[in-house]
UniProtKB/TrEMBL annotation:
InterPro entries in the cross-refs: CCAAT-binding_factor, Noc4
Taxonomic superkingdom: Eukaryota
Protein's name according to its UniProt entry: NOC4L protein
All copies of domain CCAAT-binding factor, residue ranges: 43-192
Gene Ontology BP annotations: ribosome biogenesis
PANTHER family with a match to the protein in the record: NUCLEOLAR COMPLEX PROTEIN 4, NUCLEOLAR COMPLEX PROTEIN 4 HOMOLOG
GO cellular component: Noc4p-Nop14p complex; small-subunit processome
Source organism (scientific name): Brachypteracias leptosomus
Pfam family, one: CBF
Transmembrane segments: 31-54, 85-107
Family: Belongs to the CBF/MAK21 family.
Length: 254
């Protein structure tokens, strides 16, 4: 057992500064599987090492996708290692041999968590989800389901279910992305509206969006050249601007 701080320091450099120089990288299997089971940022950081062992050293991990699915919580859109996590998740979900119910569960959970995500994360996750639909056409029923659930109360999807196969994601629809089409940030609303149209065959390149920050979004907005500024054309009446405002009887703007 290592202190959490030391776990993080080791796992950050393990995949490129330790494993390539070991004669038997498979000796790290137990360490990485234990770290993967701890949860939180430590589990996210263990993904890099596990990916190398699975991809290059034939490690079999039966519950890998179940644990990856259970790592998805509201914090993934805010953590320091968000870019690394979504880069690896993109790789793990790239195989066309994955069952539709599994990919649908990931799509649905990421969409539900997106309802409370910041704009910089949403501008990354929406193209990410579009790429999953391109790779797995069987999941497009989530978008093109007529008379599907319109909100959380009607949704058959079980968010609390730890087993992706039991989450009933394929019986649901992506009303969450439709909700994001009314997002306060215009770029997010525009990105979410893409699912109203037929998707192109070519995948979106999300590499430049993985590390997008709130500062970059703000800086982009500040540098925009606005030529037509809408102005208030009707004189304000009352405290809240309504004509028959009850507050106007008791408060004035003088």
């Amino acid at each position: 057992q290592l202190p959490p701080g030391l776990y993080k320091k080791v796992l950050v450099i393990l995949h490129d500064s330790i494993l390539p120089y070991m004669n038997e990288p498979t000796l790290m299997i137990d360490f990485l599987t234990v770290a993967y089971g701890i949860g939180g940022a430590i589990s996210l950081l263990a993904l890099n090492g596990l990916f190398i062992l699975i991809h290059q050293h034939n490690l079999e991990y039966p519950d890998f996708y179940k644990k990856l699915y259970n790592l998805l919580d509201p914090s993934i859109y805010h953590v320091k290692y968000r870019a690394r996590f979504f880069h690896l998740t993109d790789l793990f979900l790239s195989s066309s041999h994955l069952p539709a119910y599994l990919v649908a569960a990931f799509i649905k959970r990421l969409s539900r968590l997106a309802l409370t995500a910041p704009p910089e994360a949403l501008l990354m996750i929406i193209p990410f989800l579009c790429n999953l639909f391109r790779r797995h056409p069987a999941c497009r029923v989530l978008v093109h389901r007529p008379n599907g659930p319109q909100d959380m109360s009607e949704d058959p999807y079980i968010m609390e279910e730890e087993e992706p196969s039991e989450s009933r994601a394929l019986q649901s629809s992506l009303w969450e992305i439709q909700s994001l089409q009314n997002h306060y940030h215009p770029d997010v609303a525009k990105a979410a509206a893409v699912l109203n149209q037929s998707l192109s065959e070519m995948e979106d390149d999300i590499s430049g969006l993985l590390e997008l920050s709130a500062y970059e979004l703000f800086d982009k907005e500040v540098k925009k050249k606005v030529t037509d500024v809408p102005l208030e054309f009707e004189q304000v009446r009352g405290l809240f601007g309504k004509k028959n405002d009850i507050f106007a009887e008791h408060f004035t703007l003088d």
